[in-house]
Design goal:
Alpha-Beta Plaits, globular
């Protein structure tokens, strides 16, 4: 496993980061012990970096994984939607308590959209910066699905780390193209920001072209690390080998290919109907103000995700 220093933070992270969303209640909803064993498998194979968030409810999984593998050098990044000192303190205290830690490596403002949302959440950022001065947080930053937020954060001295969405098809980028996002990432990199990408497989929507998608992300030199969501030990083994430039055994690939998958619609779906309109298989409908999936018709092509303005559609 390759390791890189995350920008100017001094924090050394594995090139592959474990994306903590997928094991938890918002997606696979694995039992804590099962999910923790998947995370621990990654830790034991050289992954020393995991990304989570207050929203994900995966702190118990990470805490248990740390107990299982007994690793001491795991870098944890979390995120919150905090907008003032009170909500920022609450989110940080929750993370420290549930992870059973006195400090946390990275804390981010979750899903920032532009310079305007950064301004609106500045009181929370100030609190995290104060905690950084006290040694409780090592680095602060933002996560985002927008080019504008990357551009804004790249210019802010207060921001150490940026966690942007980037993948070969540009799925989930809300305000422009893949190449425009890449240009913003490169500028932030020049400014010394630590950058770790998210959604290299497009939230599972690029599952039919995993090799090509991961190759694209791995070959972006400006990404110090890349967060990949995983739900099984076989996926961990395959991805660790991929990031290490090694051949993935056929038996591992066969097990992964047989894993049952489904189309998942996030709770924040606005029921705009765009996905329904563009599904050529007529597998999506709005019923009782919810988008529902007809599993008999859905072929898990992932095309519908390209038309979702809020990136609510995943394959899990």
């Amino acid at each position: 496993m390759e390791y890189r220093v995350l920008g100017n933070t001094g924090i050394k992270v594995s090139r592959m980061c474990f994306g903590g969303l997928t094991v938890g209640p918002l997606q696979a909803n694995l039992p804590i012990e099962v999910g923790a064993e998947v995370i621990a498998e990654a830790f034991n194979r050289g992954v020393n970096f995991i990304d989570t968030a207050q929203l994900y409810k995966t702190y118990p999984y990470i805490k248990r994984a740390l107990e299982i593998c007994e690793k001491k050098d795991i870098v944890i990044a979390s995120k919150s939607y905090a907008y003032d000192e009170e909500t920022a303190k609450k989110s940080l205290d929750e993370a420290l308590t549930e992870l059973n830690r006195d400090t946390i490596d990275i804390f981010l403002l979750h899903e920032q959209e532009s310079e305007h949302t950064l301004r609106g959440h500045y009181e929370a950022l100030k609190y995290y910066l104060k905690m950084k001065e006290m040694g409780i947080i090592r680095a602060v930053g933002i996560s985002t699905h927008t080019i504008r937020a990357v551009e804004a954060a790249a210019k802010m001295e207060e921001i150490d780390v940026i966690h942007p969405i980037i993948n070969i098809k540009g799925i989930g980028i809300q305000d422009g193209s893949r190449d425009e996002m890449l240009k913003a990432i490169k500028e932030a990199y020049k400014n010394g920001k630590g950058i770790y990408g998210m959604k290299p497989i497009g939230g599972g929507n690029l599952i039919h072209s995993v090799d090509e998608s991961l190759d694209y992300a791995i070959n972006i030199n400006e990404l110090h690390s890349i967060a990949v969501g995983m739900q099984t030990k076989e996926e961990v083994v395959a991805n660790v080998l991929k990031f290490s430039g090694e051949q993935v055994p056929d038996e591992v690939l066969n097990k992964i290919s047989k894993k049952p998958r489904r189309l998942h619609i996030d709770d924040w779906c606005e029921k705009c109907g765009s996905c329904v309109k563009h599904c050529k298989h007529h597998a999506l409908n709005i019923v009782n103000e919810r988008v529902v999936v007809d599993t008999d018709k859905c072929v898990l092509c992932g095309y519908c995700s390209s038309y979702c303005p809020q990136f609510c559609i995943k394959i899990v």
